[in-house]
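USER:
Try writing one entry.

ASSISTANT:
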Amino acid sequence: MKRTPLYQTHVSAQAKLVDFAGWEMPIQYSGVVDEYQTVRTAAGLFDVSHMGRLTVEGRDAVTFLQLVTTTNPDPLAVGAAQYSMVCNPAGGIKDDIFIYRLAPTRFLVCVNASNREKIFSWFCAKAPQGDVRLEDESGYLAQIALQGPQSPQILRAICPDAADQLKPRQCLETAILGAQGIVSRTGYTGEVGYELYLPSPSATAVWEALMKAGAKAGIKPCGLGSRDLLRLEVGYLLYGNDMDEQTTPLEAGAAFAVDFTKGEFIGRPVLIEQKEKGPAKKLVGFELIEKGVPRHGMNVLADGKGIGVVTSGNLSPRLQKGIGLASVSTAFSQPGVRFQIDIRGRLQDAVCVKLPFYKRK
């Protein structure tokens, strides 16, 4: 398995390591729920260096990104970021991504770990003959996520400019403990937070500096288990569970990430047709009415007939009930509609609810 620059740090902290998309990653340190509570109340530190980091640069970079993604990066100011998707010609989602505009003609694109090679190859195949330069910087850059209500004061100890200046979905190229990097006010938890992109050799020093700066605030290292629970409560999608190449952005409840006004892009004709007719299925949030824990792959039924499948599910520590995302027939996608989840042969009542399950005050 592949290892991030922080692998030895995780071993020293006695993290439980698992195989995640071919990477040996920490699933937990002190426990999933403990780490979840730490992020909701203080701050947690995540190693997300397994993610892919691609750069798109050149005079035709904007035109290229308009073609291969569902959003329009042209209106983005330098130092701004946006959530987007990459679709195939049938409108299926090849990956969901974040685009950061670092300069008028230079962008950083963050992709999912399991899709890095696929997306980079797709970009290379679709690049025009004009001035577009593509680089896979994943091996050179590490990525650390600092998340939680105490994260601004912790970041201020090592990167005050970013802590004081950045607003949500903004990024800044700046020095991070003497190394040139990028700090963005983005994350996957629903809390105030930052993601730091920095040269791999600097990762351990920055990790240790953030842990030291956050000691009094209660910072803890966190693994992928709590990250998945945190993202589910705010309704953030997980590629491979909640969407794939057989799912369109409209079916995934991500129509907000599609700009139909920008002109042609890969997948647009299919998505236009689906927008006009309405998708046959839709991703929704649901809560169990009875005690239980829904999981990925469980069947969803109504009146004894299958209407969909659970794509993500868990027990919410905040709500103290089973919650999940499910892809269901559109007729059952309105808040308040009831259906049942087949949990190991037992049908348990659930109700469709408006996302997110949790929203930071």
